[in-house]
Amino acid sequence: MIDVVSFLPAKRKQTSSGWISFNAPCCVHNSENVDRRQRGGLKPTADGSWSYHCFNCGFTASFVIGRTLTFKARKLLQWLNVPTEEIERMNLESLKQKSIVGLINDRQQVAEKLADIYFDERDLPADTQPLTDAAKEYLTNRCISLDYPFLYKALPRKGIIIPFTHSNQVVGHTIRFLDDRNPRYLNDIQPGYVFGTDLQRDSWQYAVVVEGVFDALAINGLAVLHADINDAQARLIKSLGKEIIVVPDQDEAGTKLIDRAIELGWTVSIPDWPEGIKDVNDAVIKLGRVGTLLTILENRETSRIKIEMRKKQLVKRLKNDRSKSY
Fold first, then answer.
1. For residue 322, what are the contacts with CB-CB under 8 A and spacing of at least 6?
2. Which residues, in sequence order, are CB contacts of 159 under 8 Å at separation 6+?
3. Distance of alpha carbon 209 from alpha carbon 254, whole angstroms
4. Cβ atoms 52, 69 nearer than 8 A
5. Collapsing DSSP states into helix, strand and coil, what is residue 160?
6. What are the contacts of 260-264 at 24+ separation with CB within 8 A?
7. Which of 75, 140, 211, 293 lies 20 to 30 angstroms, CA to CA, from 17?
8. Terminal-to-terminal C-alpha distance of the chain
9. What are the φ/ψ torsions at residue 11 (nearest 5 degrees)?
């Protein structure tokens, strides 16, 4: 098992309780100044597990032998400059030690935390590898940050694996194939799952709900992964305790999402984006992340009547676009 302590900065100190203090690498990634007061703390255990807490930006992460490396644990290791192949080896070695007792304990802990909002932990596909240059270029061209723990799978078709996490446990995934043949996606999704809950921060006022996974990744939003919101998904989204803004794709399927948002009493935003922009990811590519978020906030509506009017305008525009194509 990898000794994570060996990757910590040379300037560090250890307390009598076992915590190792060093300059936290997470602060600059969480909108804080560079830590120069050794406010990052990591506590390792004899079996190779560890816990991390930053007393500056509040970032936490942990790793337990027998479990999949969480999204936050992967990010911390990356910030500590642990090579990608070493991170993957840590994950594989941990999974080899997974036991029935460990699985039961995991499920009990998650169930206690989330009550009835629970998903089974699942393994990612076999024969995965770090992103290739071509895969990185694809994501960069779509304005998607490479900080997310993407993986790559070459066979039977080349594709990018996007892990689905909930409470920092892997509960499914999707593969976006790069050859653009149908199907373009291959999904492993549990009923009621919403992508992006682990991307949310407590300090945020809004939770932006979109359809596609790349739309969510482009703005750190929530993706329902289809043009509908089922009751289990609605319950999970409400549990976040934020003002919910639904941003549908600007196509016929998106109008169904508008109807469902109205039914749930949620805020809807239908920005008047330039021609050629159909969804949030398109908007980020053309307008940038901040520009896209501003258009979403500026066009949010809570009035059912106004939302219906915006929907009618969208439907009319879609009909005009179809007539122009004939």
1. none
2. 152, 153, 175, 176, 177, 178, 186
3. 12
4. no
5. strand
6. 260/228, 260/229, 261/209, 261/229, 261/307, 262/304, 262/307, 262/308, 264/229, 264/234
7. 75
8. 62
9. -85, 100
pLDDT at 110 over 50: no
Helix (H, G, I), strand (E, B) or coil at 256: helix
The continuous run of DSSP H or E covering 61 comes out as strand 60-63
Classify 284 in phi/psi space as left (phi over 0), alpha (psi -120 to 50) or beta: alpha
Q: Which of 55, 51, 52, 19 is nearest to 37 (CA)?
A: 55
Nearest one of 216, 292, 229 to 266, comparing CA atoms: 229
pTM more than 0.85: no
Q: Which of 85, 90, 45, 87 is nearest to 66 (CA)?
A: 90
In whole angstroms, what separates CA 50 from the centre of its chain? 23
Reference 314, options 267, 261, 248, 219; nearest CA is 248
Torsion over CA of 203, 209, 210 and 216, rounded to 10 degrees? 20
CATH architecture of 197-325: 3-Layer(aba) Sandwich (3.40)
pLDDT confidence bin for 88, thresholds 50/70/90: confident
SS3 at position 56: coil
Q: Label residues 46-64 b or e (16+ Cβ within 10 Å = b).
A: eebbbbbbbebbebebbbb
Average pLDDT of every residue of the chain: 89
- What does 264-278 look like in DSSP terms, one character per residue? HT-EEE---PPTT--
DSSP 201-226: -TT-SEEEEESSHHHHHHHT-EE-SS
- Please list the residue range(s) of the chain that carry CATH number 3.40.1360.10: 197-325
